[in-house]
Each structure stands twice: as structure tokens, then as C-alpha cells.
């Protein structure tokens, strides 16, 4: 970000303009990294949350551009979640393993139900793997909140884009960015939100 400002947004060699997207992503990464360290502390929880953020940011922009969530990111994130939770950092290992399985199978089931009903594919396999990874990090109990939040954010943004004429009819919308946003919210505030909801029910 600072280097972008120093060089005036242009390549020092060929003087070609550099997209503002690059410093924007760097700024988002820096802000979110500092936030999770502040929230979780500088121990294992904070450092692992920072790595979690880096993966989510990378996958958000890749999926937005290509509508693909590469295995090179989703699968390492899943395994890292299970390894981190060997120490019950964000969830117990049992909950993490169940979360990975349920996360994958829940979207897999929705995918096949939708495909059998319409003959079309409603989402990609990368979405299954990303939700499995989120389940591995936070446990199965956070999955309903993640699915609810990602669906709400996705529907809101999708409707807004249609109204503004920025999304053509039948054009697919990548679901990965909304899962990533919901996953970050759940990691930081999920337990508080769930406890408040249960308290209202009681």
C-alpha cells in the first residue's frame, strides 16, 4: 500500500499504471490481520486466525474472478483447521471432524437435489470444500450460522446487482466470497451470536 503511493501507482520500470485493486487487497489484508490479532491475541488462536483470513481473502478474489475455488487453497485450509483444533483452539477436534464432514455433505446434498430438480448445477464442488474447511475450523455447530449468513449476504448483493443492472439474467454468481465473509464473521462473533439467539429462545 505504501509502496503503491510512493511510486504514484505506476510501474517504476515501464511506467504502466498499476491497478488500484492490488493496494486495496493489501490494505484489507493488513486491516483484517491486525483485527484478528487484536481480537484473539498473539497466541495460537490469533496467529491461526490470521492465516485463516489470508486464505479467505485469496479465495474470495479468485472465485470472484474465475468462479473457481482451487483445491490448492481449500484442501490445505481444511487440513490446517483440523491440525489447529488438535489443541481445541477454535473448536474441539471431534466437532472439527464432524464439521468438515457435515460441511461438505450439506452443500453436496443441496447441489444434487437442485440438479435433479432442474437439470442445472447450482454451485461448484469448490463451495463444498470451502464449507468443509470452515467446519473444520469452527466445528459443526457454526455451520447453520455460516450457511444462513452466506445465503443472506449473497441474496442481498445479488438482488442489488440485478436492480442496478450489473448482473444479467441467468449469469452465475460465485458463492465462495459469501461463504468467506460468513466464515470470518462466525469465527469472530459466531459463539456470541449463537448464545444470544439461544438466550432469546429461552
Structure notes:
The protein is mainly α. Helices cover 74% and strands 0% of the residues. The chain has eight helices and no strands. It has helices at residues 2-6, 21-40, 44-66, 71-84, 93-118, 125-138, 143-163, 176-201. The chain starts with a helix and ends with a helix.
List its traits.
single chain; 202 residues; mainly alpha; 74% helix
Question: Counting H and I runs of at least 4 residues, what is the number of helices?
Answer: 8
Name the helix and strand elements from N-terminus to C-terminus, one letter apiece: HHHHHHHH
* Gross morphology: globular
Model regions low in confidence, pLDDT < 50 over at least 5 residues: none
Cα-atom Rg, whole angstroms?
18 Å
Number of strands: 0
Quick one: biggest sheet?
A: none
* Distance between the first and last residues' Cα: 48 Å
Report strand %. under 5%
Mean pLDDT: 87
**Secondary structural class:** mainly alpha
Helix amount: over 70%
Amino acid at each position: 500500500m505504501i509502496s503503491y503511493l510512493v511510486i504514484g501507482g505506476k510501474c517504476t520500470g515501464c511506467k504502466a499504471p498499476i491497478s488500484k485493486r492490488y493496494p486495496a487487497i493489501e490494505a484489507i489484508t493488513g486491516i483484517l490481520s491486525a483485527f484478528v490479532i487484536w481480537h484473539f491475541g498473539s497466541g495460537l488462536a490469533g496467529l491461526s486466525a490470521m492465516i485463516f483470513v489470508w486464505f479467505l481473502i485469496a479465495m474470495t478474489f479468485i472465485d470472484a474472478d474465475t468462479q473457481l475455488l482451487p483445491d490448492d487453497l481449500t484442501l490445505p485450509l481444511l487440513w490446517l483447521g483440523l491440525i489447529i483444533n488438535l489443541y481445541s483452539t477454535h473448536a474441539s477436534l471431534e466437532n472439527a471432524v464432524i464439521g468438515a464432514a457435515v460441511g461438505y455433505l450439506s452443500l453436496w446434498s443441496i447441489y444434487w437435489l437442485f440438479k435433479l430438480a432442474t437439470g442445472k448445477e447450482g454451485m461448484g464442488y469448490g463451495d463444498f470444500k470451502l464449507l468443509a474447511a470452515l467446519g473444520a475450523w469452527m466445528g459443526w455447530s457454526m455451520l447453520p450460522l455460516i450457511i444462513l449468513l452466506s445465503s443472506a449476504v449473497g441474496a442481498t448483493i445479488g438482488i442489488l446487482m440485478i436492480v442496478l443492472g450489473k448482473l444479467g439474467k441467468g449469469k452465475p454468481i460465485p458463492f465462495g466470497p459469501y461463504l468467506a465473509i460468513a466464515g470470518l464473521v462466525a469465527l469472530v462473533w459466531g459463539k456470541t451470536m449463537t448464545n444470544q439467539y439461544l438466550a432469546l429462545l429461552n
